[in-house]
Write a structure and sequence with these properties.
With about 190 residues, the protein is of the alpha/beta class. It has helices at about 10-20, 45, 50-65, 80-90, 135-145, 165-170, and strands spanning about 25-30, 35-40, 70-75, 95-105, 110-115, 125-130, 150-160, 180.
């Protein structure tokens, strides 16, 4: 980790400090992709703390398009982020419905992969806590589009891998992470 961190706006700088204090682990780790790393992010440690989710919402709400009507993504990574941002937004007069994309289709009760308040035609922000490769984000995009809603932005607390932006661009969806690996003092893919 570099000790010479890039300058960030005050909201992102505060979020970075929280992530570094609560979500960063160092040691020897094997990532979901199978790659080895000397650092790991458990950004749920930020998203699931009251002070952390307010910092996340401060940054996220500055990024969201004015016409966004819903926020969500693939469960579990997106759940605390989407639900927290929607709740904080409501206290600030911004209406955002939240939802989860299940890992597999449910065949009883309310069926399908979408759980929550997503509606066809919604303009959707797809979110997650940390993205490394981008496959979960793109899976959520596919489900949301299949549901009849329109992804208008992808944002995550931390872009660890640096590859999701290109995948989002191929789909024509803006990708704006709240923080990146270099913002935390690490290179992509390390």
């Amino acid at each position: 980790m570099s000790t010479n961190l890039p300058a960030l706006d005050p909201a992102r700088a505060a979020l970075r400090q929280h992530v570094l204090a609560h979500s960063l682990k160092t040691g020897d780790f094997t990532l979901k992709s199978g790659a080895k790393s000397t650092w790991f992010l458990d950004t749920k440690q930020t998203a699931c703390r009251p002070d952390g989710i307010v910092l996340v919402a401060d940054v996220a709400l500055s990024l969201l398009p004015a016409d966004a009507t819903a926020i969500g993504g693939l469960t579990m990574g997106a759940d605390p982020v989407a639900f927290g941002i929607a709740a904080v937004a409501a206290t600030r007069g911004r209406e955002l419905r939240s939802f989860s994309v299940r890992k597999e289709s449910k065949d009883h009760g309310v069926t399908g992969r979408v759980a929550g308040a997503l509606q066809p035609g919604d303009r959707v922000v797809i979110t997650e806590d940390t993205v490394t490769r981008g496959t979960s984000i793109m899976e959520a995009v596919d489900v949301v589009e299949g549901f009849g809603a329109i992804p208008v932005l992808i944002t995550v607390i931390v872009d660890r891998g640096g590859t999701c932006g290109a995948m989002a661009a191929e789909r024509g969806i803006p990708f704006v992470p709240m923080l990146t690996a270099p913002d935390l003092g690490f290179g992509y893919g390390t």
